[in-house]
Design a protein that fits this description.
InterPro entries: DUF3152 (IPR022603). Pfam families: DUF3152. Keywords: Signal. It contains five helices and eight strands; from the N terminus they run βαβββαββαββαα. The chain has 264 residues and is an alpha/beta fold. The protein has one domain. Strands 1, 2, 3, 4, 5, 6, 7 and 8 form an eight-stranded mixed β-sheet that branches. The chain starts with a strand and ends in a 48-residue tail after the last helix.
Amino acid sequence: MIVTAHSRNTPQPRSHRRARKRSSRLLPAAVASLAVLAGCLAVGMATDAEGDSSGPDPGNEVGAAGDDVPGRSESSVPRSGSGTFTTAEGDGGKVGRGRLLRYKVEVEKGIGLSAPKVAAEVGAILADKRGWTGDGQWAFRRVSGGTPDFVVRVATPDTVDKICGGAGLDTGGEVNCRAGVDVVVNLKRWLLATRYYDKDVPGYRALIINHEVGHFLGHGHESCPGGGEPAPVMMQQIKGLKGCKPNVWPFTRNGRPITGPPTQ
């Protein structure tokens, strides 16, 4: 589940796109069948994290600068941290052609992530032509000083719960949120992804950023438009794909929006 809270700081897009214990008596064959099904659901074939490996936009350029730790398990992810943050230094170049939004990238201190590497990965996601710059409405530039339009913060589950809880949101130590100007990323999700994307953790990070920044841009949740279709980035894919194929981008390479029916 990915949750969000709205505030007066939320910019509105120029145009609204709404179209947008298992029993021990199970026979071995049945167990094998379930294992195969689970495997199929879990593989996010290194294209789009929550992306469609067989859709119109295969390929994934994000993740090369990330902090991937092979074999990392849930027990190795710290539950709590210092509650203080390091800001990635330096300013980035402008990406996109629309209204410019400035953002910072912050990483909770002492959690083993490099702020510059996280910033590079976030920057690659926001610069991707399949991202929120895809329709020409938005442009982004990373800054390290002043008052940004929004802040991407990667933090431990307890710190995420505290920040998001301050906005009236229950993240339960598991999920991310958008609270006012803060795009809050749960360290557990950043490192482990979900069962659908455990084979493509860097790609899943694109879904986190695009989903929560999408909320900041004024987009609400969407549902699967139909079996076999790519899942909208604003769909709460952690709850299940509902017949859709994995997808982490709001647009195709040619600028077509990937959307579904709006939900509550």
